[in-house]
Amino acid sequence: MDRDPKSVRPLPSSDLSWMCGQAALVLRAGIPLGEGLSMVAASTSDRRAQATLERLAAGVADRQALSAAMASIGGFPGYAIDMVKVGEYTGNLDKVLENLSDYFEKDDRIRKRLRGALVYPVVLLAMMAAIVVMLVVEVLPVFRDILASLGGELPGFSAFLLDLGDGLVRTVWIWLPILAAVVAALVLFFRLPRFRRSADAVRLGTPFLAGLYKRLHAARFSLAMGYLLGSGCSLEESIRLSESVVGNQVVADRLEACRRIVAAGGDPFEALGGTGIFPPLFVHMLSLGNRTGELDGVMRRVSRLYEEEVDASLRRITGIVEPLLVTLLSLVVGTILLSVLLPLIGIMTSIG
């Protein structure tokens, strides 16, 4: 029994880029699409990509349009399927597939950079916590015993940390499940569709990150629009398809409102400016591109500009967070060790 296409896990951007690029090469080489997809499937060692390509080849061989085969299999984004439909209708499917390949490659690069920049501070914080816990649970008891054997005792701060560590060890069966539940709740909050809009609103409203996310959404929107317009989609249709690309439900809702204004005959660039997401310069550049008849090219150039700004912002955030966390870790560890070593040195000096 075939699975519901909507329940199929989305294909990674890197796999989508490779598949679309290979399909474009097949078409430009003049090879029948079904036969070419079978050849490409046989050349890959990725099982999921191979199975997907084989099902696409079978669908095309069964006289299905490529877009219909993609929709029936699942795993392909809706805007990719719609773009392929446009390519089939206009007769430039190879160009559309090449555009999709470029789009998914750039989208994958942006996602990896964002993920790497956000994961690094979390990993560093986890390492800091692990080091502090190890000092409190393993190292401080040793120093306590040494000081006790020499007739001394831990200072107040170190004694407090040691009592805290003992309490954590004794109650680990209580706080560990609570911590796991909190982490699971945060993951669900940011991933489940029912909470997605609230989570996206939090991202746009977080200080220091709101500007980064707005530039990221501007980069994704302009990148998708450039390829959609270049593939033959109308402006209204391009905005509709871009709603699912930006990766933020709040932004998507505002783009939907913008599209309704355009459908009613309103100025699209005033509508984009009214979303409150895109900077005035962004809207002005798009308006100029539209007047010169090069809107798709301007969209791509603007996308590159914002992609570079996102990279610069990520480097700047990492450059600030990394030394800050390292300095904080050094201060915490140094304070713990000094609070123990100084009394020990004092006792050893008095004995000597």
Describe this structure in words.
The chain contains 15 helices and no strands. The mean pLDDT is 81. The chain has two domains: 5-76, no CATH class; 106-352, no CATH class. The chain is mostly helical and 352 residues long. Helix 6 (93-149) runs antiparallel to helix 10, helix 6 (93-149) packs parallel to helix 15 (295-351) and helix 10 (210-230) packs across helix 11 (235-242). Helix content is 81%, strand content 0%.
Short descriptors:
mainly alpha, 2 domains, 15 helices, 352 residues, elongated
Tertiary shape: elongated
Which parts are unreliable, with pLDDT below 50 for 5 consecutive residues or more? none
Helix amount: over 70%
Secondary-structure element order, N to C = HHHHHHHHHHHHHHH
Please give the number of β-strands. 0
Query: What structural category do the secondary elements indicate?
Result: mainly alpha
Strand content range: under 5%
- Average pLDDT: 81
Summed up, the domain count is 2
SS summary, helix count: 15
Secondary structure topology:
Layout: H1 13-28, H2 33-42, H3 47-61, H4 66-73, H5 78-90, H6 93-149, H7 156-170, H8 172-191, H9 193-205, H10 210-230, H11 235-242, H12 249-263, H13 268-273, H14 280-291, H15 295-351
Summary?
The protein has about 350 residues and is mostly helical.
